[in-house]
Amino acid sequence: MAGSYSLTTAIDYVNSSPHLGHAYEKVLADFFARHQRSLEANVLFLTGVDEHGQKVQQSAQREGIEPQAFCDEMSARFASLHKSLGVSSSKFVRTTNAGHKVVVREWLQKLHDKGEIFFQEHEGFYSVRQEQFVTEKDKVDGQWPEIFGEVIETKEPNYYFRLEPYRARLLQHLADHPEFIVPGFRRNELLGALEKPLDDLCISRPKSRLTWGIPLPFDENYVTYVWFDALVNYYSFATVDGVLRWPPDLQIIGKDILIPAHGVYWPIMLMALDLPLPKHLLVHGFWTNSGAKISKSNAKSLVDPVPYVEKFGPDALRFFVLREMVLGQDADFSDERFETRYQSDLGKKLGNLVQRTLSMIGRYREGRVPLYDGFHLAPADDVLRSDDVVEDYRRAVDQFAPHLALQAVWELVQRANQYVEETAPFKLAKDPAQAKRLDVVLAHLAETIRRLSVLIQAALPFTAEKIRAQFQLPAGPVNLSEAKFGNSLRDHVIGQPVILFPPLDEKTP
Ligand code: MSP
Which sequence spans correspond to the domains of the chain? Predict the structure, then answer.
């Protein structure tokens, strides 16, 4: 019996529009969610937006609207991108949600009651951009690094959460659970960061400076630090039919928010509340745009995913990001690379294979997948009858390597195209003595495409459905075990071919 599976992504700041990096992370999580569903797991998949904090307050002020109205408008853009990309989340998280606010305040109250939170006057430096206090230790070559933006000197009393008492326990957890942080080199970075004693975490912001946040339950003159608020989403939304599902199996984040947010604050918050930690924290790399860093502060480098989805379709973008990025490493986006993947892997290889198989079955067998007998099998058929691809696919997904999973699937696509060349059904069709052999070839091609519709459903859900519709197969999702070679299509009537990935020259620019 398959069990349940919970996964989350980082929740995106709504202070600017979604870009390729955001789209990638959500597609990645969606890939794992759909994969788990194909194993019949009951999936809870959380993703959404992070709506509080100074940056959102400032952006709303600049636009001259109330922060809530600003959030409503921006959150809708993220939600609409998710929809267009087929991100099949169970809930769209928003941190302005009333239930979430209740849980944040409960957590703060519990930690306060346990004596984990204390009040203290603090004199020091504050990074406006990062919304956090910084110390001399954070300077690089005597200068504040650029990521901090403007750094100001402040003196104000605030509430602090003690982290240091949990450092040894966190180190022990990392030692006992080497699979906690994936990939391993990120785990090593975290171990390095945990070598030094941990500073207390300032979890409050005075309302005089910031009003757009969740008021502290024990002091209404303060709102909650945005990271403390945001991290709680993983728990506050983790209910299915009102029942808590904890801990998550998989939490997906980018490399910039492992240390300290998800690698230090988050596990320590959970430990302080006696809650189990997530099983895996999967840390992906960053997309660059033709070599340039994609960042909100550099408008020219931003890649807006929307025009790509509109022009090439959602699966083209999904395929590109999943196939191109080695999970954990950085990867580069460029129109050229994107178009190459589209034209070659999708159009020429997968699209053509589907199209020619459908049209040959239409032409030579009146749209019926032929029956065949074992006497006319040939060694060439073995490459399409092998179930190795299913094993390779599963292994790659289990190892968090979607690019390898897709590589394995495209090897089958490639083999099927070669099979067409080698067996030459168009020649067989001309020779009545070869009719039985042609039955075998056409049936094997049809079966391969049926299997492909199962193997691509997590990565290319729209295409998988289109193929199933053209083959007049019941709509998915389908159990992954159905990717094994079989004979279910015998005498099955198929539909008309419809081009899956139109060539670029036929598309409007
Ligand atoms: N709001 C916080 C996360 C809170 S989670 C409790 C945040 N938001 S963000 O909008 O800046 O980033 C959201 C996610 O997008 C992060 O996981 C981040 O790593 C990821 N990416 C942002 N830019 C990226 C790229 N250029 N490439 C890939 N992912 C990137 O941090």
Answer: 334-506
